[in-house]
TrEMBL record:
Annotated TM spans: 36-56, 127-146, 153-171, 177-198
Cofactor: FAD
Protein's recorded name: Ferric reductase-like transmembrane domain-containing protein
Lineage: Bacteria, Pseudomonadati, Pseudomonadota, Gammaproteobacteria, Pseudomonadales
Chain ranges of the FAD-binding FR-type domain: 204-302
PANTHER family reported for this sequence: 1,2-PHENYLACETYL-COA EPOXIDASE, SUBUNIT E, NADH OXIDOREDUCTASE HCR
CDD domains: FNR_like_3
PROSITE patterns noted in UniProt: FAD_FR
Length: 428
């Protein structure tokens, strides 16, 4: 289910579109309203797929933008399916609710008539392809490697359905605000589709560099150090980049585990969570080309509310953004920094190199209180171990979703003003 931010944004988008609608009850009203909402939400989905930088701040980062992209896509499919079912039940609905001739599709002649017939014929197969692509995206039946190529067909499907909507919309809409809104959204969606088809999405934020070092720090974690030179624009602690080591495999999101030091050198700690990441230690070598897109993200552990207790919680590889934040604090040691309680949950503390690194950093940062939770010793982090002592609490979390859910549930029972910050890397 969408979170509160996404739900509110979806409601506002729906309300804005409905505000241009002239209410009525007829077969044509149901048909055109469902089609209008379907193509509008498809257009918004296409625009969000380009990851416009100007939307990152108001939407709360790229991960939040993707969640909205996912749900606008789901709503588009729901309304498109409703549109199709309404058309299939035209006789029954006309008998029940009557007909409104003013909402009949535009009647063209000549070339436009032929285009209209073609657009009508392509609408149904376009819907089937859309349903198929959305289904494999949500169910994850297809491995990422193949899915990313299939997903590239989406802009073509959109352009077909946009043509269907433009040619079959009621003629009187084009003299009304509702037609202007739909036309503007379709124009934006068409531009976004062309950007996607020509590989322009994210191009201005891509930087080429070299892999400087590859170190397997534990059985399932690989540290990769990249030298991006002076081209890299710099990053904030807590941000991530879309990293391409292999053009065929494509880009994958990884958190930056080092603070920016103006040298262009940065590092990632990558956990073996699938076939691709398991093969990285064998495939990567020093001197190999790498492409980074970014930096992205609004997960800044040092940007909490003033006069609020700051608690950082990391689970496993989720410690990487906090490593960067700790390094950043060391480079600004002369500044007064707020106290932080850092909880790190690990499977086996004795063999976890992250524990050693954390202790090295926190020993130099007296304002950081470090707590290690070793699950091999039965140490499971719970809300009562967070050491809450203030009425205002900011929790910065990066780790397994199950742990996030448990902490959120427990924190809701506490009489505190809570802000729970978390980013998601589920990009499909």
């Amino acid at each position: 289910m969408p979170n509160l931010r996404t739900s509110v944004t979806l409601f506002l988008l729906l309300a804005a579109q409905i505000s241009f609608w002239t209410p009525g009850v007829s077969y044509e009203h149901f048909l055109t309203l469902s089609g209008y909402l379907a193509i509008n939400f498809m257009s918004i989905t296409m625009v969000l797929a380009t990851w416009p930088a100007w939307l990152e701040s108001p939407l709360g980062g790229l991960d939040s933008m993707y969640k909205l992209h996912k749900w606008t896509g789901i709503l588009a499919v729901v309304f498109a399916l409703t549109h199709w079912l309404t058309e299939m039940a035209d006789d029954a609905l006309e008998t029940l609710f009557g007909s409104d001739r003013s909402l009949k599709e535009a009647d063209f002649s000549g070339l436009l008539d032929n285009l209209q017939d073609g657009a009508e014929d392509l609408g149904e197969p376009g819907l089937y392809l859309l349903l198929f692509l959305v289904a494999i995206t949500l169910t994850r039946w297809v491995p990422y490697y193949y899915w990313r190529y299939l997903h590239r067909v989406m802009p073509v499907i959109y352009l077909v359905l946009a043509t269907h909507a433009l040619l079959l919309a009621p003629l009187k809409w084009w003299q009304q605000p509702i037609g202007l809104l739909m036309a503007l959204l379709i124009a934006a969606g068409a531009v976004a589709s062309l950007q996607s088809l020509t590989g322009q999405i994210g191009r201005s934020r891509r930087y080429r560099g070299l892999v400087q070092a590859v170190r397997q720090t534990s059985a399932n974690i690989t540290e990769v150090v990249c030298d991006m030179g002076k081209r890299w624009p710099g990053h904030q602690a807590g941000q991530f980049a879309l990293v391409t080591f292999d053009r065929i495999e494509g880009a994958h999101p990884f958190s930056l585990s080092s603070a920016d030091n103006d040298s262009g050198q940065l590092s990632f700690h990558i956990k073996a969570l699938g076939d691709y990441t398991r093969k990285l230690p064998r495939k990567l070598r020093s001197g190999q080309a790498v492409t980074l897109e970014g930096p992205y993200g609004r997960f800044d552990p040092d940007s909490g509310r003033k006069n609020a207790q700051q608690i950082w919680v990391a689970g496993g590889i989720g410690i990487t953004p906090f490593l960067a934040a700790l390094e950043k604090r060391l480079t600004n040691a002369e500044r007064k920094q707020p106290a932080i309680t850092l909880h790190y949950c690990t499977a086996v503390a004795t063999s976890d190199t992250m524990v050693t690194r954390l202790r090295e950093l926190t020993e130099q940062l007296p304002e950081i209180s470090l707590h290690i939770h070793d699950s091999s010793q039965g140490q499971r982090l719970a809300v009562n171990q967070l050491q809450i002592h203030d009425s205002r609490v900011d929790v910065w979390f990066c780790g397994p979703q199950s742990l996030a859910n448990a902490l959120r549930s427990g924190l809701k029972q506490q009489p505190i003003s809570l802000r729970f910050h978390q980013e998601s890397f589920k990009f499909r």
